[in-house]
What we know:
With about 450 residues, this protein is an alpha/beta fold. The chain has helices at about 1-20, 25-35, 60-75, 115-130, 160-170, 185-190, 195-220, 250-255, 275-280, 285-295, 300-305, 325-335, and strands at about 95-100, 105-110, 145, 175-180, 225-230, 235-240, 265-270, 315, 320, 340-350, 360, 375, 380-385, 400-405, 415-425, 435-440, 445-455, 460.
Amino acid sequence: MLKRYTVLSILLNISCLWALIERPVSFSEWRDACFDQLPEYDHPLKPGKSDKLIPILALSELNRSINGALEEIYFQYYEPEQWTNNVFPEIPAPFIQKIIVEPQTTIYIQGDIHGSLHSLLRNLDRLKDKGLLNDAFKVRKDVYLFFLGDYSDRGRYSIEVLYTLARLKENSPENIFLIRGNHEDIEMGERDGFEYEMSKKYGSDGIEFFTNDIDEIFSLLPLGIFVGTGTPDRTNYIFLCHGIPAIGYNPQQLLTLNNHKTGIYYSLLNFDEDLLERQKTSYPPLSIIYEFYKSQIIPFHELNWGDISTMVDFSEIRGCLTFPPDFIYHLLDSYSVKDKQHYVHTLFRGHQHAEIGNGCFDENLDYCPDIGIKQPLLTNSIYTLISAPEGIGGGSATEYDSFVLVETAEAFSDWKITPYQFMVPLAIDKKRGYYVSKKYNPRKEKMEYRWTLKIGLKRDRE
Length: 462
């Protein structure tokens, strides 16, 4: 009996090797291969436990795509005229981007993924169905995709998530942007599963790739992005980051660089003591908390670690301040450069999923109302976006795929937002998970996703 199972195991491993993707494939081919071969779970990976982490992607193809994306990022990064003071850092240092787009642009924003590959692929597939993304991983020229960080760890498919994002970046480099979250960090990856996944799928070569190439691409991601559009005389912005806006950061030079002209711009994070004093004076609760904890506060740590809270406070675990919505609005207003007609209106963020789970959430961390309905994007609004049903799923609560689409206009009063949520079923079999497919439903006369159990070589439970 033991011999029989050994032979079966060898045959399964051989069949897995045959299935390795060793060249760039279309989006549909990649989606179908992932859906067919990789089960989706409703709970995170526990490193060292019995989860089978089997690669479907050759390390050579992962390397090609990651370095293809890196080449495009470097090409944009090493342009002195795109930086404030016309100087770029020789060694990557924390920075912020500004992206000025044309009016009537469609902006896709997705929050935390945490290795939840199937959720990412379904969301991108929905963009494809809308005609915003094609089968060559290219978006329309008037479409921009922004991802808010935490691509890896916790879920089982951090590698495949990063590969998918790299394919997007290398094929639409001017339209795809990735923000650095707190998990875009090698130490976090060593702790929360990414390094373990690399070692299980690729052995020592995987660990080397994780330590070198993955660390390199993480270091070249911005901590925040201002996305704006308007007229030749006035630009309206939304601000995107993983956590919350940071105190002491003055974006005036960045926002006024090449005033109101479309393009991609950069600025290092420089601490402005005078601005901090003005922020403390205008908001007394900040002054009290800051003076008490200032020896422990890490500058700009709010950008990828900060939480929304009911009052200004300090998180010892995260090493940064936490802010209530009214102070975040105050910070966004302080970022505006009003004498030059640059106005920062709204925050999009991820990060804070422990108490709320997956979905689109408002400033109070409640589910957004009017899901799927286009509505005005308001000044002084906050959206928290999480789409990691495997990476942070508890296996016992409703989970969602989620993203928002924002439509820009010359006047901010004409900007629109549509929040999207799509329910993901809980797994019946916690050990084997679900296999996802996309099939035509003749009753509803449309394509639908289906989740089934695969027992042996057959899918026989839905």
